[in-house]
Structures are given as C-alpha cells and as structure tokens.
Amino acid sequence: MITRTVSKNPRTTRGDLVNDLQRAGTKVTKATISNTLRRQGLKSCSARRVPLLKPVHVQARLKFAREHSDDPEEDWENVICKLQTGLDMYWLKQGDTSGTAGFESLVA
Which residues form the Transposase Tc1-like domain (predicted)? Predict the structure, then answer.
C-alpha cells in the first residue's frame, strides 16, 4: 500500500502515509515509512519552490549587482529583503532522473 500510494502521488508525505495506515488499522511510525520506501529503492527529496532562473534573468541580476556594487551602505538601510523558505517533499525511485529538473536531493 505504501509504495502504491507514493507511486500514484510522489509528493505524499510520511505523515500522510502514517495517517492512511492508522485509518486502515495499522500503527506505524514515520521512520518505518522511510525505511520501507528506502528498501523499495525510493529516496526522499525536496522540490524547489521557484523555478530556476533563465539566462536573461541571471544577466539582469548580474547587471544590477555591478551597477550597485559601489553604493554606500546608507543606500541599503531602507531596503527590505524577504527570505522565503519552504520544502515540498516527494519520493523518487533510485536512479530515476525523469522530471527532476529543479529538484535537489536531501538524501545521498
């Protein structure tokens, strides 16, 4: 059931799987889920929240950085930077690289 669920929806979390199994009357831990999936050749990965930059965007950022590299610190005091973090988990068959653009592995 675990592998079948993950095959249908790779973004299924360990918590979702634990809850599904508890509803079916089986008590398992998140560690058991991870171990089972790893034995089936799957590994846990996280998806990037944003797509990779296109070359035109890289050049625009580089141009901006060069133009403002000599700006005094006082110019940057009123700049607000917003850092966004978040992880989307998914399961990937070991050696399967299809559809992994923009993904980075959490487990080697």
Answer: 1-69
